[in-house]
Design goal:
300 residues, 6-stranded parallel beta sheet, 3-stranded mixed beta sheet, 51% helix, globular, binds nicotinamide-adenine-dinucleotide
């Protein structure tokens, strides 16, 4: 496989820039999404249009999916007019969405029975990482297939790691999402406490940037949090989805996750307030409500 024909399904915040990097690198692309405007934009950049997952699979050798959740990947891969109806033996399927490890294994087994090699390859690095092709990509599957797909991964990411067999990439992503969620909650509580005690959140941000509390999440989200700019980014409802995956995985393996479960409930409150389309850093609004203040720099 020198430069395989690639199918790309799911052209949202992440999938659109990722697919464009593949076009820029000279790969032939067939794309599909439920949103016509997203398809039109990537077609204008040089891709061909696929009418269904089945059609995309029939016209590609490597099929990448970047979809919201486990049921979406199940439907696209295994449902009616799904990939499973269009694939040929020797094709490769790479799912880069964040889904339950068990569903990644189920899809790999079903497509594997048709002679398709499967990798779960969720990512970290956010919309900025997708735009700059600097994503961290955590992969589950076989070493030989991982090695073969490395040139494709390298167009989208910088840190690309084989974590173990099918499902292992999703397990590592679940671990990643614990740390990111706890980081954002910590930042939220710090900004709210400081602001209610009378300190400008912008000063808190600047001081913490130079000390032990600095983190990549702090750097990426802090400046927007203190302005109350919660446009996504990473939608809060997706982080809630990930926390559901994490709690189930903890339950499956008998691992108590006491602090993550509390964060899960705070995200549940955010969903109940109808704020799921905000960026996940908008969880600060829930902490603000509890404290009865807005921890944000005054806008002009
Ligand atoms: P998004 O909602 O912006 O994009 C998802 C796209 O999938 C949409 O364009 C939607 O129309 C399309 N889609 C849904 N069902 C479909 C179907 N049946 N057939 C074809 N297209 C379909 O989401 P996103 O932010 O790009 O996230 C995608 C995945 O990546 C999620 O699993 C998310 O958790 C993960 N992720 C996101 C980020 C981020 O910062 N946004 C970072 C890391 C991982």
């Amino acid at each position: 496989m020198s430069k395989p024909k690639i199918g790309f399904i799911g052209l949202g915040i992440m999938g659109k820039p990722m697919s464009k990097h593949l076009l820029d690198a000279g790969y032939e692309l067939v794309v599909h999404d439920l949103v016509q405007a997203a398809v039109d934009e990537v077609v204008a950049a040089g891709a061909a249009k696929g009418v269904s997952p089945k059609d995309v699979a029939a016209r590609s050798e490597v099929i990448i999916t970047m979809l919201p959740d486990s049921p979406d990947v199940q439907a696209v891969a295994l449902g009616e007019n799904g990939l499973i109806e269009g694939v040929s033996e020797g094709d490769v399927q790479i799912d880069m969405s964040t889904i339950a490890p068990g569903v990644a294994i189920e899809v790999a087994e079903a497509l594997g029975a048709k002679g398709v090699g499967c990798l779960d390859a969720p990512v970290s690095g956010g919309d900025v990482g997708a735009i700059n092709a600097t994503l961290s990509i955590m992969v589950g599957g076989e070493q030989a297939l991982f090695d073969k797909m490395m040139p494709v991964f390298e167009q989208m990411g910088k840190t690309i790691t084989l974590c173990g067999p099918n499902g292992a990439g999703q397990t590592v992503k679940a671990c990643n999402q614990i740390q990111v969620a706890l980081n954002i909650i910590g930042m939220s509580e710090a900004f709210v406490l400081g602001a209610k005690a009378g300190v400008d959140p912008a000063i808190i941000y600047d001081v913490l940037s130079g000390g032990y509390a600095q983190s990549r999440v702090h750097d990426a989200r802090g400046p927007r949090m203190i302005k109350g700019d919660f446009a996504p980014g990473f939608k809060a409802r997706f982080h809630f989805k990930d926390l559901n995956i994490i709690m189930k995985t903890g339950n499956d393996y008998g691992v108590p996750l006491p602090v993550t479960s509390l964060v899960h409930e705070l995200f549940a409150a955010m969903m109940a307030q109808g704020r799921g389309e905000l960026d996940h850093s908008g969880i600060m609004t829930v902490l603000e409500d509890l404290a009865g203040i807005e921890a944000r720099t005054k806008q002009e």
